Amino acid sequence: MHLPIMLDLRPVGYVLGLLLVALGGLMLAPMALDLARHDTNWHAFLETAIQTMLTGAVLALSCQSRLTRSLSLRQGFLLTAAIWVIAPVFGALPFVEGAPHANFTDAYFEAVSGITTTGSSVFTGLDSLPMGVLLWRGLLNWLGGLGIAFVAMIFLPVMRVGGMQFFRAEGFDTLGKVLPRAPDIARMLLVLYVGLTLLAALSYLAAGMTPLDAVVNAFATISTGGFSTSDASFGKYSGPAEYVGALFMILASLPYIRFVQLAAGNPRPLLSDPQVHAYLRWLAVAVGMVAAYRLVTGEEATEPVLRQSLFNIVSIFSGTGFGSADVAGWGPFPVVVAFLVGMIGGCTSSSSASISVFRWQLTFLELRAQIVRLHAPSRMQAVKYDGRPVDRDVLDALVLYVGGYILTLGVLIIAMDMIGVDAESATFAVWTSIGNIGFGFGPLVARTGTMTDFPDAGKWIMVLAMLMGRLGLLTIFVLLMPRFWRW
């Protein structure tokens, strides 16, 4: 008789504790900014930094004896989920103990939205908030984007989430052990991520932003997070800043693995990647259609139409969530295009979310193969991607993911309807949350441009959707299975 092996949580607790110590340490940056500006809100950041670092230190020390060189697959699943569920609890503390003195629901929503790089907000009056708070929101975005890039390149391929095991062949095969090469990959990612962020900040400065605005918007752009420094988002900056933002949002939604290869002196994978080609092609078509529609149906000048269409469609497609214009006011056709590109998302292995270009490409290839089999059942029709045959387990995981994504979208919309949210607001709230898009439509969003008018139950539904969308759905579903804890 074989007794079930219980999951050892101590290695997970050790890593999580260290991350909380680091998170608390980063709270000292907005504290220093507010202190330098003689803003009394620095007390809130100091208190929450101490609370977070002490909690993390106690957790790490209590679990230190069980530290191992690598995590098991189950521990990898649990750690991935724990980071995005627990870290926002502490990330929300400055919003509760200091400005804007939010209740826990709103503070946790804001922190989850930041760390999952969704970009939806329940805070109004951003222009009057202490600068430390604006910096902290940007840091939440930036940390989330870096963590997502790390998870997308290392954890998800091993976890076989949504067909991601296809990318184990990209030179980062970690099958069997989740973190054997993690330090090397993390260093490469960190250098690239910091480099892109600095370049974006300098570009925003050159486009006329203040230093704080440039830094926070650079954090939000490179992470595709969308937390800006103003209630007007990018409506505060017109002209060159929109072009700069569009460029860096596109770069941030390309596969990070290609940038790693590019930095290693091999540009060919980036230039020949079919996912990159498809993303840029679909993006050009979407922007072109929206701009053409607006030029035909409106009387605006050509350059502002092209600029605004480019910026806002890129923002939605990449899942960033910045806004520089009222997209809903452009008419029904642009809204439909926005909904569709939001359902696609950016490239796999980037900080973008939603279903992703890669998964849609494989879905179309599998659909085509199935249609061919209907006409010629005896014909062997192998699915190939980038010249490589796609294993059946990849396609099965893909079908499960896409089907689960659409089913979850529908179930959560119904849940929103059941608590009294109107159909339009409910649909777009779940769409923007599960896709980590950050762009809102509907009557409940129209008044403030935020999610603040949703009932608390609706905000928690959106929190669940944001977490599920960011963690690839199945990571959450696996943790709900009793077998996972006994396996």
Give structural notes.
The structure is a single chain. By secondary structure, the chain is mainly alpha-helical. Helix content is 65%, strand content 1%. It has 22 helices and two strands. It has helices at 10-26, 28-36, 42-63, 73-91, 93-97, 104-115, 131-159, 182-206, 211-222, 240-252, 256-263, 268-272, 274-297, 302-317, 332-344, 357-375, 392-418, 423-434, 443-446, 456-470, 474-479, 482-486, and strands at 384-385, 388-389. A two-stranded antiparallel sheet has the order 1-2. Helix 8 crosses helix 9 (211-222), helix 13 (274-297) crosses helix 14 (302-317) and helix 13 (274-297) runs antiparallel to helix 15 (332-344). The radius of gyration is 22 Å and the shape is globular. GO terms for molecular function: metal ion binding; potassium:chloride symporter activity. Low-affinity potassium transport system. Interacts with Trk system potassium uptake protein TrkA. The chain crosses the membrane at residues 12-33, 45-64, 76-96, 139-158, 185-206, 241-259, 279-297, 309-330, 336-358, 394-416, 428-448, 460-481. K(+) binds at residues 117-118, 225, 320, 436. This is Trk system potassium uptake protein.
Which structural traits does this protein have?
mainly alpha, 2 strands, 65% helix, globular, potassium:chloride symporter activity
Kindly report how far apart the N and C termini lie. 15 Å
Roughly what is the average pLDDT, rounded to an integer? Answer: 88
- The tally of beta strands, per DSSP, is 2
The poorly predicted ranges are 169-180
As laid out across the biggest beta sheet, the strand order is 1-2
Order of helices and strands: HHHHHHHHHHHHHHHHEEHHHHHH
Radius of gyration: 22 Å
The number of helical segments is 22
- Major sheet attributes: 2 strands, antiparallel
SS-derived structural category? mainly alpha
